[in-house]
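Let us work through a complete example step by step.
Step 1: write down the sequence.
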Amino acid sequence: MLDSFEIQGGFTGKWSLAREAQNLVHSVRGIPKANGWDNQIRTEPGLALVYDHKYRLVPRIDFSRRWKADAILHAGGALGNVYTNLNGGIELRAGWNLPTDFGTALIRPGGDTNAPADTADVRYSTDLNAYSAHVFIATSGRMVLHDIFLDGNTFRSSHKVDKELFVGDLVVGASIVRRKFKISYAHVFRSNEFKGQPGGLGFGSISISYTD
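Step 2: predict the structure and record it as tokens.
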């Protein structure tokens, strides 16, 4: 089992520098700059308290000495003026020398921890040629009680939309562990987050971690 507690802080609006960050990336990649920044939510300090509980089901399924599969459950929530929600889901993994950690980061608060849970993990192996490779599929659902990016500013009027109460993610991807490094790619298919949204979202992420 793994319990994670986080305190997240920052700013929305101009102080977040989101406009400058997006324009920089678009400039580097040769993508036209986005319009509509003047209609975004206003500057506001943000705070979120986040809790996440993960439970890796045991025993694992052993297809052979090296080929294994497992399942990791997660449940938690967030409380704050940026977002308040409850979430839960499951990740299924299968592969060669499956690592003994708590899975690949799902894109949500409290989603990422790649630390091995015991010395059986390939990252602790004395064999310099040891490696791990596996695929995964995960589902995650959340009840969205508040989202400042959809509901608008907390203490002043701003643009807003009618949010969906329930949002779901389907995540597919693969991970490779080589010596002390773990590299993962995850592609997320997300359901609609607000009323009138023309269709769900799809996006990918790459994560790299190092274990000392």
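Step 3: interpret the result. The CA atoms of residues 135 and 174 lie 4 Å apart.
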